[in-house]
Amino acid sequence: MCFLPWGTVTVAKGVYLAPEAFLQQTFDNNPPPPDKLWITKALQPGINNILGHDLPVIRLRYWHDGIKTAWILEAIGRDKPITVGFVVKAHKIEQVNVLIFRESRGWEVKYPFFTDQFKAAALTTDHTLDRKIDGISGATLSVGALTKLARLALYLDAYIQDNAK
Fold first, then answer.
1. Max CA pair span of the chain
2. What is the pTM of this model?
3. How many whole angstroms separate alpha carbon 97 and alpha carbon 134?
4. Which site among 31, 106, 149, 165 is 20 to 30 Å from 9 CA-CA?
5. 27 to each of 31, 63, 146, 161, how far by Cα in Å?
6. What is the pLDDT along the chain (165 residues), one digit of tens a residue?
7. Nearest to 84 by CA among 95, 76, 72
8. Closest CA to 62 of 140, 165, 163
9. Which of 72, 45, 67, 81 lies closest to 153, judged by CA?
């Protein structure tokens, strides 16, 4: 019998849920057309506070059905992007799904035991989550990436909701 310690690496990477499937599930097989959020100078200070850097895009797509918003966001874990889907409803996270994971470590963040910690989380006035997110040994950078993205999804959702009035 041969033991290959790197065998789990190939299993860890991959598409766990296609972005299109995430949107279909989120909106009961009838996703609205995407909207665009232009990343203005007014938004950048909050984004920088959350991510530690400016967002390197000029616009983001999001989906909104009048009740909830869906965001597909990416952040670098250690070396490569992690693609995550967030659903925000009434200024709180309703759902988190790791969609695509490209790192060789930290893939445990895809499991509900981790992502369920974000359910009903809200953003405080200083752009932090209103709760502590427990880490995972060996997945510190992936945990940090998902936590930052959760904060970003809530921040962007609040901006959309505040400017829709």
1. 65
2. 0.90
3. 17
4. 149
5. 5, 9, 22, 18
6. 444 444 444 446 788 999 999 999 999 999 999 999 999 999 999 999 999 999 989 999 999 999 999 999 999 988 999 999 999 999 999 999 999 999 888 889 999 999 999 999 999 999 999 999 999 998 999 999 999 999 999 999 999 998 865
7. 72
8. 163
9. 72
